[in-house]
Amino acid sequence: MARQELARYLRERRAALSAREIGLPEGAPRRTPGLRREEVAELAHMSVDYYVRLEQARGPRPSPRVLDALAGALRLEPAERSHLFQLAGAAAPPAARPVRHARPQVARLLERLPGTAAIVTDAAYGVVAWNPAARALLGDDLARHTTNLARRRFLGAGRTYETSSTREFGSIAVARLRRAAERYPQDPQLALLLEELHAGSAEFRRIWQTHPVHAPGHRAKTLDHPELGRLRLNCDVLLVPEDDQEVVLITGAPGSRSARVLESLAVAATPVARETT
């Protein structure tokens, strides 16, 4: 175990994380940047004394369970989590749950896509970031931070549309959810979603039994929008493999009416990408 390096890494990651980023009140100005040791200990469900000893290179070798709790408390990305385990001399087990927030640099990317509606989805098809054009196109329920495209597709939760690829997306969604179930078998939120879909949709149950396989890529679809009319759209998917997420880019053919509609949505909306935390 690289005790000194582990202590330094914990201090650095704590200093890089603000109270606002994890939903804590900032309160009075802080003498030093980042979270307090007490806040990290509380987030990781461990004693303050134990965490302080780790930061001072005086603590015992932390168990994988403790390391996983620290990775969650410090909002470590998958590569950072693996590095934490390496410093502690332990093998990093698979992540217990999907990453349910978009990296800031990915969320900012959505702001710089003129004429494009863009969203980021996690491994279970939860929408974790979007730009204003996507919200205008796909519905204001995005702003509630609870939109899940699989739930919307099979249970009619949120704003739904008739598209030329509705049936195809059913198989795509089930294939991705099956992969997620294999990767995150202990995630209670995913288990609850799958239970809800199995209970509420005979179509979902039928497709689940077929074990569909799908590779992300390009899809063209026609969308019948209640206010904007019929739109012919291109959907391209970019992968964020470190977080098991997908960036979905929705565009119209250059010069087409659909492209002009998307451009007008982007101009009319506030140019700030949103993300969940």
UniProtKB/TrEMBL annotation:
Family annotation (Pfam families): HTH_31 (PF13560), MLTR_LBD (PF17765)
Residue ranges annotated for the HTH cro/C1-type domain, each copy included: 34-81
Top-level division of the source organism's lineage: Bacteria
GO MF term list: DNA binding
PANTHER family found in the cross-reference section: BLL4672 PROTEIN (PTHR35010:SF2), BLL4672 PROTEIN-RELATED (PTHR35010)
Protein name: Transcriptional regulator
Species the sequence originates in: Streptomyces monashensis
